[in-house]
Amino acid sequence: MEWIGIIAALGSAASWAFATVVFDRLGKLIPAAGMTFFKGVFSLVLMVVLILCTGGFDHVSQHDFIFLALSGILGISIGDTLFFRSLQDLGAKVQVLYFMLGQVVTMLLSFLLLGEVLSIEEYIGATILLMGIIIVTIGKQEDHPNKVRGIIGGFASILCFSLSSIMVKVSIADVGVPTATFWRMFFSTVSIMFIGFTSKRFVTWYTPLKRAKTLMLFLLNVVVITYGGFLLSMMAIKHITVSLASVLSATEPVFVLILAFLINHERASKRELIGAAITIAGLLIIILNE
Questions:
Q1: How confident is the model at residue 132, as a pLDDT?
Q2: Spatial CB neighbours of 56, under 8 Å, sequence gap ≥ 6
Q3: Which of 84, 134, 225, 231 is buried most, with the most CB atoms less than 10 Å from its CB?
Q4: Mean pLDDT, residues 153-176
Q5: What is the spatial distance between Cα 56 and Cα 47, in angstroms, rounded to a whole number?
Q6: Interacting residues of 180 by C-beta distance below 8 A, sequence separation 6+
Q7: For residues 116-144, b (16+ Cβ closer than 10 Å) or e, as one string?
Q8: How far apart are CA 243 and CA 109, in angstroms?
Q9: CA-CA distance, 12 to 252, in Å (whole number)?
């Protein structure tokens, strides 16, 4: 079953990369909170269709229900919001460092809270893989003021992401992936909707979607993210350790390089190619030791 988890984690990373490359301009038209909310709404519809086509909703115990709800609110609603605000304060270069730190925090928490331990070979492969990702993603960035709020927000966001992954692992053992994904999305969407109404910015969220072209691109983006990004990431956590799923999800920048070349004909630099090769080497070490 480990192979299912590995393929699912890599598929999730590729899906997020595809959405990033193709629909990056949507973020310039729709506010981040609005993107999160409407992505959640359309994703819920897609998940209901999938669930009805695969036999209906699974029974969810009160224990699992609570953890799925907390995971959605903590990881998607709060975590994403804190992370985006941190980027505004610290810049994109720091994003990479926090993202890599997040993988380490997830490994530590999964060991402390779940007792998950990887093999020596897997730890070596994970270290090499993360080094490759850092080489791929860190380049010349504009300087941003190092504000205290940004530092606190960055650390808080990675804690939210890591704890959210732990909660998913705890709750998904006896629940089907589609049902678990639905409830996680449901609670994150409801919490974002509450923020929208209380902040009185809801109207600005949906105005850009009145354009037919923007709406079609957005819907295609949601399909990729829902069935590829969210669903496969939940499947990965179900079948492999949280630590390994988190590390494999970090391969997204490599998929971005590949898709940017195939779709936008953007050539990678020597540094990016070297980083990609190192990442693949780390990935192979992990796979060959499963």
A1: 82
A2: none
A3: 231
A4: 87
A5: 11
A6: 60, 64, 68, 168, 171, 172, 234
A7: bebeeebbebbebbbbbbbbbbbeeeeee
A8: 9
A9: 8
pTM, to two decimals = 0.74
Please state the separation of Cα 147 from the chain's center in Å: 25
Contacts of 146 (CB under 8 A, 6+ apart): 89, 90
Give me the phi and psi of 130, to 5 degrees please. -70, -35
Residue of 6, 5, 57, 26 whose CA lies nearest to 225: 26
For residue 266, which phi and psi values (nearest 5 degrees)?
-90, 125
Q: How far apart are CA 16 and CA 249, in angstroms?
A: 9
Position 27: which residue type? G
Contact 233, 93 (CB under 8 A): no
| Residues ≥6 apart with Cβ < 8 Å to 228 | 11, 12, 14, 15, 16, 18, 19
Spatial distance between the Cα atoms of 161 and 272, rounded to a whole number of angstroms: 26
The per-residue pLDDT for 198 is 74
DSSP 174: T
| Residue 117 CB contacts under 8 Å (≥ 6 apart), including other chains | 111
Residue 280 has pLDDT above 60, yes or no: yes
Backbone angles phi, psi at 31, to 5 degrees: -55, 150
- Label residue 97 by pLDDT band (50, 70, 90): low
The torsion region of residue 56 among left (phi > 0), alpha (psi -120 to 50) and beta comes to left
pLDDT at position 143: 53
